[in-house]
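Anyone? Bumping this.
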Amino acid sequence: MLSLPYIRENRDLVIKGLGIRNIKDAESLIEAVIDADQQRRSTQAELDAILAESNKISKEIGKLFQSGEVQKANLAKQKTGQLKDKSKELSEQLGNLETELNEMLYQIPNIPNDLVPKGNSEEDNEVVFEEGNIPELHPGSMPHWELCKKYDIIDFELGNKITGAGFPVYKGKGAKLQRALITYFLDRNSEAGYTEVQPPLLINEASGLGTGQLPDKEGQMYHVGIDNLYLIPTAEVPVTNLYRDVLLKESDFPILNTAYTPCFRREAGSYGAHVRGLNRLHQFDKVEIVRIEHPDNSYQALDKMVEHVKGILQELKLPYRILRLCGGDLGFTSALTYDFEVFSTAQNRWLEISSVSNFETFQANRLKLRFKNKDGKSQLAHTLNGSSLALPRVLAGLLENCQTESGIVIPEVLRKYTGFDVID
RNA sequence: GGAGAAAUGGCAGAGUGGUCGAAUGCACUGGUCUUGAAAACCAGCGAGGGUCACACCUCCGGGGGUUCGAAUCCCUCUUUCUCCGCCA
């Protein structure tokens, strides 16, 4: 969430930024926030004055008792009664104002970076890079879900029996290929300086709030009601929350973590076309990279992450492109996002396989993730994350693009991980 | 799951109703000394709100209560440790 001082000091910038996201009534929303904040502060000041008065009297009473002037002390006690009532009333009022203010702040998305183009939907995203050859497939080539069946490597019906739609079972070489990709991604990330972590797969409410999944995206997560925990929709949540309520030193930057985790998403309301096979699942594997950066370096860091993901896709020799998301498609918490898409030859469409974002201070503010700057002041850090990479669609692209008449040819870099060269 | 003990600043650790945002040690920062370092010595050193800056307010695991006044007393929740039970 945006910080109040930031909104106060950059009123016009904020309104303009929300405009890029096509937010209606941005101006009145921000005005309401500033008003509520003003009210909050004056109520706070009023309450503080009363508390100061009552603290003063209490100290005097203490002294009177010690010097044995009990009568005077009892007299002074009476004075505090009124103050108490008043302070109770005010602090209740203050609590309400704060709740109200927070509710408003929770509705305000991050301010887009200047590079973010205006736009309404994914149609308006900007293609900024494209690389790799789209292979000519042999006659009789098929989409990945048919390949999965043909070679018996991923079984959707079986998963359906065990759990339900969107929970496939990986078998034999399919399971091995998946594991190979995970290990390969983790190794690549480690080489690039990311420290590997294995976080919990269930998170509490505070963590969900910290990275912005709550309260706005509650319905997208699986909720374990009995313990009030949520299954993670991405490793971003537990890994970024490692740094919740942390005060860093400048010398701690940059912080680089990578984690492999399964991800769970309810995907409520996204049925219909384009959800076949591996295209959209309720449970999938992903390797994530997370960075905590000094604000001065975060955009440089974002570029590094983009370059890193590019490197992996080049090694896999998959045709891909990079999009800069427009205001209408940009995630709630992000200031700038690059999506990576792999071309699915048999489906003749692009599949999103990675999303790399800079959240600037938006998450850090909720997380209370700060550092001591040169002036000795606490300042919010910047958080970034990206997938490197999401497994199912990489797998889909790989199966489809690497299919030949004699089987699926495993990319060179993966062979030492799979232990086989071809799925046939 | 049962019984007991505990939770204080970056860490360790005092503090059991008032002058305590909190002794002391370590760590850290600056300075003196030194060719440099170490040691020694001196000084500074929790967080948030608020203010031009002060003042002032809040915070001793979370929440609630008693009291004129709570780190200190009471209730409750959470977590950690020890013992018992169960168990991958």
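Late reply, but here is one note on the structure posted above: The radius of gyration of chain A is 27 Å.
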